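Q&A log
Question type: sequence-to-structure
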Amino acid sequence: MSMLVIMAGFLVMIVLGIYFMSKGFRNFRPSKKKVQKDLKKMKAEMDTWAEELVPIQKGDLELFSLNQLKKNVRKSVSTTAQGIYTTIFNEPIVAYSYRKYAAPKGKLDALLYARTANHEYAYRMKDDKIQLVIDNHLIGSIQQNGELLSATSRKPIAKLQKSIAENMPIVINNKEVANVVQALPSGKTELNQRAFEFVANDLDQEEEKLLLSLATLELVQRSLK
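Response status: OK
Response body:
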């Protein structure tokens, strides 16, 4: 009887091992088809949160905080995370869903989808570049130094100046439009801390979208460290 129990336990371990190995292979350097399938699923998940989001009006970016609602991080073969950023008054304004795939050491392979009440942002992170799509339009690629290169001209159109750790400036078309606040020390939190130290008050809609695209990426990546 004891031998049968041992054999049964051994078989269960083998089955579980095969399951986790197959799951790991599916999440290692996923195909374009797999990534599109995951993005579609992430969009559907965010649809359930979309009705909660408050439209960002002109001047509301100054109220953007580091506070998150419904933050949920799961780490196994791949890392997944979700959350909703709020204003300093706890109004939900940006929801996101993140998936990090298994990749060789030192390489990044991930997908981020974020949305406001009016716009959606998709980021395909692979190795040292991040492809940015806003409202189903390919905008360009974000480089390691935080520079966003246009998909059409290949020229810089925006940049998050990561070399400046304290209050990182965001520059769009050679104009400084905002400063992202410095990250707090690990383990430290401040209730409803503002995300921006400064936001220009003369931004047009396209500049606001670019600003949010760079800031949201930085804040999500920072919150997952």
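Response note: The chain is about 30% helix and 35% strand.
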